[in-house]
Write a structure and sequence with these properties.
Elements (H helix, E strand, L loop, with lengths): L2 E4 L9 H13 L14 H6 L3 H14 L2 E5 L5 H12 L4 E6 L6 H4 L6 E6 L5 H9 L3
Parallel strand pairs: 1-2, 2-3, 3-4
Length: 138
């Protein structure tokens, strides 16, 4: 499957090791991740050289062509919220992961769209199983 991974870029990178774990887990399952570069430390340098309109068009195309979207939502991000909403408008399955003791947007946790799952993890080791469970439903 083709899985779009969404995470905070300009909103903060404190969860970068979690982002890398998510992308690695998706890859280990044999899936493609067009946004794998978002988990890397050099993402800001890579994204800074691309025009915002180009990024928007590129990402919309990737979401349109993906089978599902997986987002880490512990760090607030306008872009991630937009990507989640866009994916749901296209009836794509969406998994939102967040740390247990982090408050997330009520627009995410209160969303009752049938294609969204919001899951909490206590530690990084739980992420693999949450992703496997989600992907097995697609």
């Amino acid at each position: 499957m083709n899985i779009y991974f969404a995470c905070s870029i300009t909103g903060g990178r404190k969860e970068e090791s979690i982002y890398q774990k998510i992308v690695d887990t998706i890859h280990t399952g044999g899936h493609q991740v067009p946004t794998a570069h978002l988990s890397r430390p050099e993402v800001m340098d890579l994204e800074d050289i691309v025009d915002p309109e180009e990024i928007y068009c590129r990402d919309i195309e990737w979401i349109t062509n993906c089978d599902a979207l997986i987002a880490e939502v512990s760090t607030p991000s306008h872009g991630v919220g937009y990507e989640i909403s866009y994916a749901l408008s296209k009836n794509k399955p969406v998994l939102c992961l967040h740390k247990q003791d982090v408050r997330i947007s009520k627009m995410i946790c209160g969303n009752n769209h049938p294609k969204i799952q919001v899951r909490v993890y206590k530690n990084p080791e739980e992420i693999n199983q949450l992703i496997y469970n989600f992907l097995s439903t697609i």
